[in-house]
Request: fold
Amino acid sequence: MKRREIIKNIGLLSISGSVAGAVVPVVSRAGTMPEKRDLFKELGVTPVINAGVTMTFLSGSLMLPEVLEVINSTAHDFANMYELQDKVGAKIAEMLHCEAAMVTSGAACAIVLGTAAAITGQDPLKIKLIPNLPGPRPEVIMQKTHRYLFDQAVTTTGAQIIEVEGPEEMDKAINTNTVMTLFFNAAEKSSVTHEEFVAISKKHNVPSFIDAAADVPPVENLFKYQKIGFDLVTFSGGKMIRGPQSAGLLFGRKDLIEAAKLNHSPHEAPIGRPMKVNKEEMFGMYAALKAYLERDHKKEWQDWLDRIKRIKSIVETVPGVLGETSVYPGPANAFPSLMLRWDEQKVKITGREVAEALKSGTPSIAGVSGKGKDGKSELRVGVVLLRPDQVSVVANRVKDILKKNA
Reply:
């Protein structure tokens, strides 16, 4: 019997008193509602307050309430995943003013699927054989300064990366084996500008792809790179868009997106099958993007500045401690944080020791430490991922640690 066939001998789970699309809470024998289950406590997992940036190892960001609502409301019915990916993708493309879009299992998956699409197109034989296609290995052009950990997603498809420096070298490197060019948007240095990169790719009729995973805010970046002319764009869904952590966006040219879908689940054999996205994540990613685009971004920015001001006023009560607003230049993580500095002769603790004390305390708080150019200790306190009720908690914990060592 094929796996896709329902095993008829297994009974369907039933929920007493439930109807389609509804869940009835379980009541104890005594007729009272059970206590709320604390899975962090049950499993011995430490809850963390993220006073840093969006990091995957810290579970990205917290999903928006409307995303959680959508996930819960869609969990009680089945859906045809081909139809759902198409319908969600069409709505996302409409919101992003592009030809086509799809939900992926994060930006790294989008790179795998985008590269696979460039290699296979919609050829079923190539889709079946990738990453072991006969003949020369497909080539993807990248700037030498753009090589990064996540470009392994490219080589997963069987492609090899060809490094270049400057527009002329890039132009000469493109040949009949070249299937794609990849631009890492958060790279510190570029020898080829966005516009030159796109122009050279188009000259040779090679698809250009930009990885902009963590590059909102500003919201305008969601539209900027397709306007420049990139054929494929990816953003993470689980960072500042605040969708499901394991979701991402891939959008751009319709033919490439359709080829990417063929290389992805729910198709049962392609390279992207292990990277499936469940229906709740697709609905959730749609809801998160919609909410992000409709948000008052100026108000949100001011709220972040107000948080910084509030924490600063509390921590600066410790003599010798000074704080200032610091906006990372981007393009990744381009939002305001509070930078705290102090003289270690007066406050006898290093930034790293403060960060360790925050991490090991209760609740555990993640911060980023360092040293300034003047040699003074620094602690960067991120505010954009804090819940409103956590702002004072973070401020007072930092103050207490510094005051104890003053």
